[in-house]
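Hey, I was hoping to borrow your eyes for a little while. There's a protein on my desk that I can't quite get my head around. The fold is given in discrete form, as structure tokens running alongside the sequence. I'd be grateful if you could look everything over and explain what you see. Here's the protein in full, and shout if anything looks odd to you:
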Amino acid sequence: MKAINISDIKKIGVVEKAKPEPTKGEVLLKIKYVGFCGSDLNTFLGKNPMVKLPVVPGHEISATVEAVTEGVPETLRKGMRCTVNPYTNCEHCSSCRNGRPNACRYNQTLGVQRDGAMSEYIVVPWQKVIADDAISERNFTLVEP
């Protein structure tokens, strides 16, 4: 699949990457739209100290569910329009245990600590998917959970 890759400060290009394969509890998403956020710009300019290059940017997305795996609720189905919560959390560190998963010590944000969504497909844990067919594909890009 094709992906946008920031390989170094102010160096960006299109690369070929393997299409991700979801495992148990994960969802494969087909990307429709991706916003280019200020944090993506700072990554490109070399001003985001949290990023280790190279990285695929993008965390403000619109997608459709392409495939679900075992352990994913039946309410999440192929073809549904969605966005994602771009942050991961471990559920075990002190921040997570104190109800602050946004401050997780082991956070892996899309486009920052792990490759983002400026690609044809991404895989995320099903809990990070926010699906709602009442929201258009274009408008989902503007939803930042």
Remarks:
- The CA atoms of residues 28 and 123 lie 5 Å apart.
- The longest strand covers residues 26-35.
